[in-house]
Amino acid sequence: MLGPSELILNSDGSVYHLNLLPEDISTTIITVGDPHRVGEVSKHFDAIELVRENREFVTHTGTYKGKRITVISTGIGTDNVDIVLNELDALVNIDLNARMPKSELTSLDFVRIGTSGALQSDIPLGTWLLSSSAFGYDDLLHFYSELNTSQEAAEDLQKYIGRLPLPYRAAASTSLSEVFPETDYKRGHTLTMPGFYAPQGRALRIGNPTADIFHKFAEFELEDGSRLTNLEMETAGLYGLAELLGHRAVSISVLLANRMNGEFHDDPKGAMENLILHTLNCLVS
Ligand SMILES: O=P(O)(O)O[C@H]1O[C@H](CO)[C@@H](O)[C@H]1O
Ligand SMILES: O=c1cc[nH]c(=O)[nH]1
Description:
- By secondary structure, the chain is of the alpha/beta class.
- The protein has a domain at about 20-135 and about 170-190 and about 230-285: Nucleoside phosphorylase domain (Rossmann fold).
- It contains 7 helices and 13 strands.
- It has helices at about 35-40, 80-95, 150-160, 175, 215-220, 235-245, 270-285; strands at about 30, 45-55, 55-65, 65-75, 95, 100, 110-120, 130-135, 170, 185-190, 230, 250-260, 265.
- The strands form 2 sheets. The protein has a 5-stranded mixed beta barrel with strand order 7-11-10-8-12. The chain has a two-stranded antiparallel ribbon with strand order 5-6.
- The longest helix has 17 residues, at about 270-285.
- It is globular, with a radius of gyration of 19 Å.
- 1-O-phosphono-alpha-D-ribofuranose binds near residues 32, 33, 196 and 232.
- This is Uridine phosphorylase.
- Its EC number is 2.4.2.3.
């Protein structure tokens, strides 16, 4: 039995941070970083049945073209992804009254719709990128059991870069990736970083002694000769936890910055709007 400090429930029986009950969520879940983006997704719904908000976690559940979908904000970073994935999993796979894991488990589909910065100069701004795998420099998955995803490329990457801790590598669900055609959603490999500034090669007022390694990241070749494509802050955590909990996950980003060319998209809102609508339509087609 899971004790009160392990599985924390609010007085109405909802899970601690998300304030949700099992009936509040669908098995298809869109995650977004920005709480405001939840409404940008659900404004396309035929009907919204649930709106819930606590801290950075805003949840809307409704239907899009007849399909029940939950959209939830994680806020920024894999520390928040840890909370969202564990609490959503608890809603479907733990009997909250008995405080015991269920014997029959439910698999959820997670689709992250986020933003990201390109690491290669030849990737245009506005590209929709589906991360086939992600290298987590954030440490989250080092606290969980080993992933099935091969960690060899992560070890190679650490040796190649030379001066950062060992990242972990986690992969997208291949079956869920097939829902998003490669013609529209370019495939790539993502660096999930523990910050936006120095951990993504940026320097504003204080120096960034590791800025030079971002060219090495861009040069690194994976086992099949492919390159690292982009930088963001959630994907590796989402993939790693989804794999360990038995769910499917894909992470899709619109590339708003190009870190090699120093460019930023001139219409980030419009670029996100297109991605949201196209992704919703893929989910129902
Ligand atoms: O736009 P979202 O989904 O938040 O994703 C990206 O943007 C944030 C940083 O601006 C980080 O969360 C990063 O992963
Ligand atoms: O450069 C970028 C743009 C969006 N999100 C990030 O994490 N990095």
